[in-house]
Amino acid sequence: MSLRYACFISYRHGQQPLARRIINDLYDALVNELDLLVDAEADDGPIAIDRKRLEGGKFYNEELAVSLCESACMVMVFTPVYFSKQHTYCTREYKGMEALEKERLRLLKSGVDKRNGLIIPVVFRGAQALPKEIEKLRQYYLFDEYTLADPEISKNPRYVADIKKMAQYIADRFEAVSKLPVDACTQCENFALSSLFTRTRVVPVARWRSLMWLVYSAKVAMSLPGVAY
Fold it and tell me: CA angle, 212 as apex, 108 and 182 as ends, to 5°?
């Protein structure tokens, strides 16, 4: 099974016009660029996104884990509520891609810049709330001046250059992951994002350790809001 998507957009749901427009505008801007840059297999285009999340109600669908695994990168739409203690689906998506990233970068051939990660934060609000581990280790984009009064992102001179740069970065990562010596999507049908992060119970240590995608290196262990240790 080959990669089906160039990227997966991970975002916190919102019911107000600004939150909805942020996701729709970002998607439209990126998909227009990526459609010219990558030959993804998915019939619904080069970007995986959960449209139902915009409608409210059930905020997480386990089937999204497969789409995440079948994506070369993840675009993380960051606001201060992204790593929520009440709704932990974004945290699970982040940690899921982080695990995929670790394995895929390990498999990249020599000569490929492995410093370029597979998670791309786009900060729309609250840059000061971005976890320090992400701020220090990842290249991120600041779209924090975007408002409802602005033209669409794809037509906004303030953001056009960053969108093109982001799309090219994603396309380069898509090409690199597609050329891994082993199929990056071999296990995607069984890939799952655990419900480990909950408000109501503590998960046994044995189960914690059994989830390979949550094993932390002692040197780079992250402390993210919404993650109970």
Answer: 30
Please give the backbone phi and psi of residue 142, each rounded to the nearest 5 degrees, phi first.
-100, 110
Q: How far is 93 from 224, CA to CA, in rounded Å?
A: 13
Q: Are 76 and 94 in contact (CB under 8 A)?
A: yes
CA–CA gap between residue 2 and residue 188 (Å, rounded): 10
> Which residue from 173, 197, 3, 4 is spatially nearest to 75, judged by alpha carbons?
173
Percent of the chain having pLDDT more than 90? Answer: 58
Sign for the pseudo-dihedral over CA of 48, 52, 54, 60: negative
Its sign, for the CA torsion 24, 27, 31, 32, is positive
Provide the CATH number for the domain formed by 5-214 in this structure. Answer: 3.40.50
Single pTM value for the model: 0.82
- CB–CB of 47/3 below 8 Å? no
The string of pLDDT tens digits covering residues 166-198 is 999 999 999 999 999 888 888 898 888 865 444
Neighbours of 179 (CB within 10 A): 12
The ranges assigned to domains in the chain are 5-214
* pLDDT tens-digit readout, 22-63: 999 999 999 999 999 999 888 889 999 998 764 555 555 667
Place of tokens 């924090």: 144
